[in-house]
Specification:
Number of helices of chain A: 2
Number of domains of chain B: 1
Helix content of chain A: under 10%
Number of strands of chain B: 24
Strand content of chain A: 35-45%
Largest sheet of chain B: 9 strands, mixed
Strand content of chain B: 15-25%
Radius of gyration of chain A: 20 Å
Oligomer: heterodimer
Distance between the termini of chain A: 49 Å
Strand order of the largest sheet of chain A: 5-1-6-8-9-10-11-12-14-16-22-19-18
Number of strands of chain A: 22
CATH architecture of chain B: Alpha-Beta Barrel
Chain lengths: 268, 569
């Protein structure tokens, strides 16, 4: 694997929309060509070289290319946008849309990320060591096609609207989350290892949610049907199994209605 | 104003039966002329096709439901909104429901000069005109909807054609409208009671009038007034298997009516987006094309014009004043839905829709639209449309032209279908060898729609005295490309487009904002005291706005082109 290193040289005045920081865009290019790749700062066209010093060289293909950003990207959006292979490591924080619409490869952010991490994701892995803000693995505003595949793991906490319109894949929040989990989802799995305030699974059609902490306010559209033993992301436990959202339409399979499943860790 | 001379192009002008003759087109002061001075700016069109500006008879490009589509589909703009062309031009956003600026620019890039906004809710006319004004370059007009209007239903129930006509004349005048649009006659009004009219004899609740009576009454009122355009109808039972039967029944209602106007129009009914109305079968499982049956009837009856409403296999946004249909569609695809009731007048619904080539029904719909065009024996009465954005966005017109002109292109698309064999079984497209000529395409996109709208002395041709709207397309008439993609490419980005005597597009790039006009019809007839009393009473009793606030102010249509119609008492 060949590594390209981006060293931040200047903090963008307006957020830098760096949709070209991807192994796909970098593959087969020289550092000078990479520095010349386009981005946006507001309505102005800028380049990666305006904000980063580029060193090292990429592989011939995206899969053979690793990108390391040696510093803070708190004002850089769209890192790993639509990437298909290879890897990106950010040694600091990143702004919105990390791994948006990504199809494959790996992203590791060692700090925190802002909102829309893994939006519209179709494959690959995202690992965030810190916390995430809102809209982890959600659909774009207005869209009904959310995360389809891949894995997002947030080691810290997350905000609201996790997995909105999710269709597949897995989201793991290792700490607490706020409100709106898997709203409108039609597939996929969300695991929250901490507590959630509420609005879990609203208008959910299909898919699974596991809450290993507490849900402060349950939605009335979910009905408890059984108590089950489950192993979830390496943790064994007893869960109350709810189905829902009973107020939403549900597809039928072999004459039986398919509901979304919500597993909440049973009180000890 | 400058003089322009378009030299040595292959001129195609069906209004004068010119088919590919190498000739010059001269322009002066915004009009086509016989000759220009040597000072004229010369455009070399050698080896290229020269046609009049395109005329779109039916598209939803301005007004409240279009804006609802823009507002509730942010995803329609995602990754599809490039930065502005350069300084002085506006950003272009959206795909199926483009911004007003993108609408104007893209129509101009395709060489279109005139677009009819196909459904204007009278109460929200001010908004329609503001958006029309905000759409650069192209000339536009708008058709107010009448098919579910309480006044119309009241008068027609009593058989009062003259009063209906007087009301229509008043409404077209105060809304700066163009003609009579009818959407799901009676059905949209029935929707207020949670019902619909799926046959011509389903009575509308409370009004106790049937779609049949509304359609006949409005055709008679249209000819009583002698409007430039005929009654323009979106028929009942749109989009459902087996609806071709009611389509034929509705078309037959035109048989008893004679056209009466001073604008050279010969039809009394324009049946729009016929593709959505030409389905056989009685379920989605045995859904099939009845394009042949429908076109066989249309071909024999000069009193009818149609537009295709071709499905383009895109992700798009459906929007129509057919409120019950949109509710039905929402229950089929489970996507988001918006519904609006417009008091006393109409309703509207908006639902996104994905015409997926992996779905059998979508493939059949695609075939039906093209079959209608290929079965047409009179291209001057059959027009290219997508019912933008309902069956696809208008930027696909060049693709429809490609499909109509090339069997190879049709077969290539059929090959991409997941259920190709089932689509072939349910349609005739695979066995149809017809390939339309450029002359026929010019009839379907220029001379035909202009005549149908009663605008044939202004648009659709290149005769001296007509508007200088001229498109130059990079196609060699004598040596057409073997690759059909080149046809689409040429019509998507005109080599040059001159609108009202000004060069507005060159090599597909917009060069100016042109001189746009809003065209409206001023119907003059002696005041009808009974109708004026009814209107005054209804505005006092039923409407949420006052009568004095209802008419569109002149400043909202600052570049009017008014067509006067004198109605003899």
């Amino acid at each position: 694997m060949a590594t390209v290193t981006l060293k931040p040289t200047k903090t963008p005045t307006i957020m830098f929309e760096a949709f070209n920081i991807t192994p796909d865009a970098f593959a087969g290019k020289t550092p000078a060509q990479i520095a010349a790749l386009e981005g946006r700062e507001g309505k102005i066209k800028v380049t990666i070289g305006d904000f980063f010093e580029v060193s090292g060289s990429p592989g011939a293909t995206a899969a053979e290319t690793d990108i390391v950003i040696a510093g803070d990207c708190s004002r850089v959006k769209y890192i790993g946008n639509k990437m298909t292979a290879g890897s990106i490591t950010v040694n600091g924080n990143a702004d919105m849309y990390v791994g948006g619409w990504m199809k494959g490869g790996k992203i590791h952010v060692k700090g925190n990320v802002h909102s829309f991490c893994g939006i519209g994701m179709e494959g690959g892995d995202i690992l965030i060591d810190g916390k995430a803000e809102n809209y982890v693995g959600c659909a774009y505003r207005g869209d009904w096609r959310g995360m389809k595949d891949g894995t997002i793991r947030i080691k810290g906490s997350a905000g609201n609207d996790i997995g909105t319109f999710m269709l597949g894949g897995t989201i793991i929040i290792e700490n607490n989350a706020f409100i709106h989990v898997s709203t409108h989802a039609e597939g996929g799995t969300v695991i929250i290892k901490g507590d959630v305030e509420g609005r879990v699974g609203g208008q959910m059609v299909k898919g699974d949610i596991y809450i290993l902490g507490k849900v402060q306010y349950m939605l009335p559209g979910f009905k408890k049907i059984e108590v089950v033993e489950k192993e979830v992301d390496g943790v064994k436990g007893t869960f109350d199994h709810y189905i829902g959202d009973l107020g939403e339409r549900h597809p039928k399979s072999k004459g039986k209605e398919i509901f979304a499943n919500l597993y909440v860790k049973a009180a000890a | 104003m400058a003089e322009i001379l378009i030299k040595n192009g292959f001129v195609i002008d069906p209004t004068r039966k010119i088919d590919g003759d190498v000739a010059d087109v001269a322009i002066k002061d915004g009009k086509i002329v016989d000759t220009v001075s040597s000072a004229a700016k010369v455009i070399d069109a050698k080896g290229k096709v020269v046609m009049a500006g395109g005329v779109d008879v039916h598209a939803h490009v301005a007004g409240p439901k279009v804006n609802v589509g823009r507002l509730f589909r942010p995803e329609d703009k995602l990754f599809k909104s490039p930065m502005a062309q350069k300084n002085g031009y506006r950003m272009e956003s959206g795909f199926s429901v483009p911004s007003t600026f993108k609408t104007g620019y893209d129509y101009a890039r395709m060489g279109y000069a005139f677009v009819m906004e196909a459904a204007m809710p009278p109460l929200f006319t001010a908004h329609v005109h503001e958006e029309i004004h905000d759409t650069p370059i192209i000339d536009e007009a708008a058709l107010p909807v009448f098919g579910n209007n309480w006044f119309v239903m009241d008068y027609l129930k009593k058989g009062e054609i003259e009063n209906t006509a007087a009301y229509i004349a008043w409404l077209i005048r105060v809304t700066k409208g163009f003609g009579i649009k009818v959407v799901n006659p009676g059905g949209t009004a029935a929707w207020s009671w949670g019902l619909n009219c799926l046959s011509l004899d389903d009575p509308v609740p409370y009004f106790e009038i049937t779609p049949r009576e509304i359609i006949i009454g409005l055709m008679k009122a249209n000819e009583y007034l002698g409007l430039p355009h005929s009654m323009h109808i979106h028929q009942n039972n749109l989009g459902n298997p087996g609806n071709y039967a009611i389509t034929l029944d509705s078309l037959k209602l035109a048989e008893g009516i004679k056209p009466k106007n001073k604008f050279g129009r010969e039809q009394v009914m324009h049946s729009t987006h016929l593709q959505f109305h030409s389905y056989g079968g009685d379920s989605w499982a045995n859904f099939e094309s009845k394009a042949k049956e429908v076109m066989d009837y249309v071909n024999q009856n000069k009193g009818i014009t149609v537009d295709l409403g071709c499905v383009t296999l895109d992700e798009t946004t459906t929007m129509t004043a057919d409120g019950p249909f949109e509710h039905h569609l929402n229950h089929l695809n489970h996507l988001k839905w918006c519904n609006v009731d417009v008091e006393l007048e109409t309703a509207a619904g908006v639902v996104p829709y994905v015409y997926d080539k992996n779905i059998k029904v979508c493939g059949i719909q695609w075939a039906v639209g093209l079959e209608l065009g290929l079965y047409a024996t009179d291209p001057n009465r059959t027009f290219v449309s997508t019912d933008h954005p309902n069956a696809g966005p208008f930027i696909r017109y060049p693709r429809i032209i490609k499909w109509l002109m090339s069997k190879k292109a049709r077969e290539a698309t059929l090959d991409t279908f997941k259920y190709k064999d089932k689509v072939i079984d349910a349609t005739n497209i695979h066995s149809m060898d017809r390939e339309l000529t450029l002359y026929e395409i010019a009839q379907m996109t220029r001379s035909g729609p202009a005549k149908c709208l009663g605008l044939s002395n202004i648009y659709g041709g290149l005769a001296p005295g007509m508007n200088a709207d001229v498109g130059v397309f990079d196609l060699n008439y004598k040596n057409m490309p073997s690759d059909p993609e080149m046809i689409e490419k040429a019509f998507l980005r005109a080599a040059c487009f001159i609108k009202s005597g000004e060069i507005v597009v060159r090599d597909g790039e917009v060069l100016g904002h042109g001189h746009k006009n809003t065209i409206w019809v001023n119907v003059k007839m002696p005041e009808n005291p009974q109708v004026m009393r009814d209107i005054t009473q209804s505005f006092t009793k039923d409407y949420t706005v006052g009568l004095s606030n209802y008419p569109v102010r002149d400043y909202l249509a600052p570049h009017p082109f008014v067509i006067d119609v004198d109605v003899e008492a």
